[in-house]
Structure formats: structure tokens, C-alpha cells
Amino acid sequence: MASSSSTAAMEVEGSGLPKFEPLKAQEMSDGKVQFRKVGVPSHRFSPLKKHWMEIYTPVYEHMKVDIRMNLKARKVELKTRSDTPDVSNLQKCADFVHAFMLGFDIADAVALLRLDDLYVDSFEIKDVKTLRGEHLSRAIGRLSGKGGKTKFAIENSTRTRIVIADTKIHILGSFINIKVARDSLCSLILGSPAGKVYSKLRAVSARLGERY
Asked: Which of 28, 44, 124 is nearest to 76 (CA)?
């Protein structure tokens, strides 16, 4: 039989679903220091060094999370402090640093610290269609467009940010917007002409606009 203390902690609403009291940061972490490590690819060392203070300042001063670069392990290490207001700040900071390592601009990646409903989704061209040689090169070219025109059009229509790194594609945005952007990119990979993709994008973005 449930004790009176446990029933007090869990109130059952009229819908029949249990309602739990929100956990405090100390309870979630069990009072222990939490750690995260983010690997640094060799080609991101120079950008990391150049933009270190832009990464360090929001993480250390605003999110109250300790951050350091471990040169021997080639990783950025993060840990909670005694004054970290919420243990979830640690994961947000790890996502922020990871997004920068994937190639996103600091100004775009920092949105992961400020907003709760942003994510990074990654996939490879071969996940959509197996392409080799010139066919693969042409597919990558279709994704970017002349002077990056196609990529910018998809980003602006879906309110996302896209990084095309060789055969890997990374998308930063909300869940719904990522799905729309990914569908457009997949259509281009499968050979759809850019004009057709633009038309579909306009229709979908109009529906998204009405939803908001």
C-alpha cells in the first residue's frame, strides 16, 4: 500500500494521469559534479583557438559551467559548478560546442544555449542514395547551388542553418523545420530539379507560417 508521503508527491489529475513534482537540480545530479566531453576534429583546432573566448564567455559566465581544452585528449571538457543553476545547462553547453565542431557559426550555435526546442540533425548522402564519383559530386553541387543559392533558399524558408561537410549534412533548427529542410535536401539528392524543390518549399513554409 502506498505511503502518505508518496501519494503527496504524486497527485493524480482528473485525466487519470500521474502528476510528479518537478525535480530540483541537486536531485537530478544527486549532488555530484557532472561531466561532458566533446571531441575536436583536427580541422576545427584553428577555428576553436580563434573563437575560444566567444565560446568560453557564454558557457562560463552565463550558463555557469566550467569549460577547458584538453590538448592531450583533443577534447573540450565541461563540468557543472556549485553555482550551476540547472544541470540541463551542461548538456546545452555540450550541444553548443558540438555544433561549433560540426561547422556552424558561433552566432548560430549559441542559439542552442538560449532556446530549448533547437536540435542538430545529421545524415550522410549515402543514407539517402548510394552515389559515387561524378554522380556524388553533382549531388553535392545540387545541394549548394550556384554560389550557395539553393542552400540559402532552404535555410531562409525553413528557418534552419545547414552545414554541408563533404558527404555529411548537418541541420540546426526546430524539430518541424529540420524535417522540412531534410525533405528538401533529400529531394535534391534523389535528382529533383531545384525549381520543383523551391515550389514545394514555398507551399510548406506558407503552411508553417500559418501554424505560427
From this structure: 44
Beta strand segments in 71-118, E: 75-80
Residue 16 within a domain? no
List, edge to edge, every strand of the sheet that includes 119-124.
119-124, 168-173, 161-165
Residue 4 lies in a domain: no
Q: Which region among 14-23, 115-124, 137-146, 163-172 has the lowest average model confidence (pLDDT)?
A: 14-23
CB burial readout 8-40, b (16+ within 10 A) else e:
eeeeeeeeeeeeeeeeeeeeebeeeebebebeb
Q: What's the CATH code of the domain at 161? A: 3.30.1370.10
Q: Is 70 found in the same domain as 139?
A: no
Same domain assignment for residues 80 and 43: yes
Name which of 211, 209, 207, 151 is nearest 181 in CA terms: 151
pTM of the model: 0.78
Q: Kindly report, residue by residue over 88-139, the tens digit of the pLDDT.
A: 899 999 999 999 999 999 999 999 998 888 999 999 988 888 888 888 888 8
